[in-house]
Amino acid sequence: MAEGDNRSSNLLAAETASLEEQLQGWGEVMLMADRVLRWERAWFPPAIMVTSLLLLPGLNQHGIISKYIGMAKREINKLLKQKEKKNE
């Protein structure tokens, strides 16, 4: 029975080590993302804008942008109607 426990412990240790290796690269990505979100450098905001613009064609292809534009238009119209009712 001790042999079976030893095997499962070894397997668990191997899986944990493998997971650590896989996630190690993500740690660096997360640190960079944190720096970008805190705008530690003056060029980060323009870099984010350029990156966002590069994503727009792909998002539009799947209708995501159209969906959110439609939602925004509905909200604006709703607010305008409320403002008109208030003014009457």
UniProtKB/TrEMBL annotation:
GO cellular component, one term: Sec61 translocon complex
Record-annotated membrane-spanning stretches: 42-59
The entry's keywords: Membrane, Transmembrane, Transmembrane helix
UniProt KW DNA-binding keyword: no
InterPro entries named among the record's database cross-references: ER_autophagy_membrane_reg (IPR052114)
Cleaved signal peptide residues: none
GO biological process: cotranslational protein targeting to membrane
PANTHER family noted in UniProt: ADP-RIBOSYLATION FACTOR-LIKE PROTEIN 6-INTERACTING PROTEIN 1 (PTHR20952:SF0), ADP-RIBOSYLATION-LIKE FACTOR 6-INTERACTING PROTEIN (PTHR20952)
Protein name as it appears in the record: ARL6 interacting reticulophagy regulator 1
